[in-house]
Design goal:
This protein folds into 3 domains: about 260 residues, P-loop containing nucleotide triphosphate hydrolases (Rossmann fold), CATH 3.40.50.300; about 70 residues; about 100 residues, 2-Layer Sandwich (Beta-Lactamase), CATH 3.30.450. The chain contains 14 helices and 15 strands. A 9-stranded mixed sheet has the order 9-8-10-11-7-12-13-14-15, with helices on both faces. Strands 3-2-1-6-5-4 form a 6-stranded antiparallel sheet, with helices on one face.
Length: about 475
């Protein structure tokens, strides 16, 4: 069964089950006071007094330390003669263990599969993003010192540090989740911690069709483009699902190709066997030893890649990536922060100039027009869903301007249903892409219904 038929069957199944419902509840503004707060503090202080330096004994493994803490906590609760039943005692021990060994108040949100982002605003409270909507929780840290301990625990595990001389840091949790922390004096009201959670599952194109991010026809077109080695940029704002879509697009790369991924913090999870992952390195305490994305892009060119995937282009590496695309390393994929496909080209120009070379603007634009074939733009809509809102082909230069052709645009005119969910999807404009003939030379045929020129193929059944 063709990819398009398989995805249309998935979409039909989703439609038969009803539209995706998105919660529109108002944000919770009341912070619930935990009745165990004072009790927890007293028991925790007693635990620190009993264990002292053993809490930081490097010779103890994490499992050994966990057992030791639970044992000592049980003794503390017994000696304090705290009137608790078995369930209350288990909760008290678990919460203090999370505070001492884990990440405290955010532990429950790290374990919640529906939460995609966790935002700790000093002592004001903890906000989470769930299904694209921000909610205020009843959790909070009891003191700035406790939050600082959690931040120090996170960054120390990846060999980083955060203090007044270096008050900002990017790190990641053991599961790959991305962490940003900033402390006073830059954060005026106290330490701020932001966690972008690492998805437990690897999304497929069928998943994105069910979530209405893509349509079956759009998937079929993108699959042909990636297989045919078009250079593709995935663009959009923060939290629009660029990395998720990049992971899905990478699944269309043939198994026989050698793929090199380059990222600031490893997030991509490719399903191919022949994948080499490179990760940038920040400077050490002395300000030395930094390895940038640009350094890794240049090195990757010497590693005989079939494909180069850059997690995000944000600086001078844009020039090296464009040159790679123009010198035989076709089929490259990357993401870029911007508001529209046209803005993506402007940002690329700016980043090429950041490489430090005094190049004329026209030369830069010619490089971009020659290198980039396709721009997939994502937006997070008002209902919290993440959708592809534009698919744009990059054409040639006309005068000093790069011409673009919109192949798909989002149908806002379809309106909103009774649940506040957008009814529309990205729909074809009826224009046929120029790269169709180029792919046809490689034996890759794109049906006309992918461009809205003819009726789409009959719906098939999923395998």
């Amino acid at each position: 069964m063709k990819l398009g038929d398989r995805l249309r069957a998935a979409q039909a199944e989703q439609n038969s089950q009803g539209a995706l419902r998105v919660s529109t509840d108002d944000l919770t503004t009341t912070v619930v006071q935990d009745p165990f707060a004072l009790l927890k503090q007293r028991a925790q202080d007693a635990l620190f007094a009993r264990m002292g330096a053993r809490l930081y004994d490097a010779s103890l493994g994490s499992d050994q330390l966990d057992v030791l803490v639970v044992q000592e906590l049980s003794r503390v609760v017994e000696e304090e003669h705290i009137p608790l039943d078995s369930s209350e005692r288990a909760r008290l021990v678990a919460e203090i263990r999370d505070d001492v060994l884990g990440f405290g108040a955010i532990e429950q949100w790290l374990a919640d599969p529906d939460v995609t982002e966790i935002m700790v605003n000093a002592l004001d409270g903890i906000y989470v993003e769930r299904r694209g909507k921000i909610e205020r929780t009843g959790s909070r840290y009891t003191s700035a010192e406790h939050l600082r301990q959690v931040i120090d625990r996170i960054v120390s595990r990846v060999g980083r540090r955060i203090d007044e001389s270096s008050p900002m840091v990017d790190a990641r949790l053991p599961d790959g989740s991305r962490v940003n922390a900033i402390i006073p004096p830059l954060a005026v009201d106290g330490p701020v911690l932001t966690v972008r959670k690492f998805a437990k599952q690897v999304y497929s194109d069928e998943d994105l069709v069910r979530l209405s991010t893509l349509t079956p026809e759009l998937c079929e077109l993108l699959a042909a483009g990636v297989s045919g080695k078009l250079n593709v940029l995935v663009t959009g704002g923060t939290g629009t699902g660029k990395t998720t879509l990049l992971n899905v697009l990478s699944q269309y790369i043939p198994e026989t190709e050698r793929v090199i991924t380059i990222e600031d913090a490893v997030e991509l999870r490719l399903v191919q066997e022949h994948v080499l992952r490179l990760e940038a390195r920040p400077p050490n305490i002395e300000g030395k030893g930094e390895i940038t994305i640009r350094d890794l892009v240049r090195n990757a060119l010497r590693m005989r890649p079939d494909r180069i995937i850059v997690g995000e282009v944000r600086g001078g590496e844009a020039l090296d990536m464009l040159q790679a695309m123009n010198t035989g390393h076709e089929g490259s994929l990357s993401t870029l922060h911007c508001n529209s496909p046209r803005d993506a080209l402007a940002r690329l120009e700016t980043m090429v100039l950041m490489a430090g070379l005094d190049l004329p603007v026209r030369a830069i634009r010619e490089q971009i027009a020659s290198a980039v074939d396709l721009i997939v733009h994502l937006s997070r809509l008002r209902d919290g869903t993440r959708r592809v809102t534009q698919l744009t082909e990059v054409n040639t230069m006309e005068g000093d301007v790069i011409t673009l052709t919109d192949l798909y645009v989002f149908d806002y005119a379809a309106g909103i249903d009774e649940h506040g969910h957008f009814r529309g999807n990205a729909t074809p404009t009826g224009l046929r892409a120029r790269f169709v003939d180029r792919l046809a030379d490689q034996g890759i045929e794109i049906p006309n219904y992918c461009f809205g020129i003819t009726e789409r193929a009959p719906k098939g059944k999923m395998k």
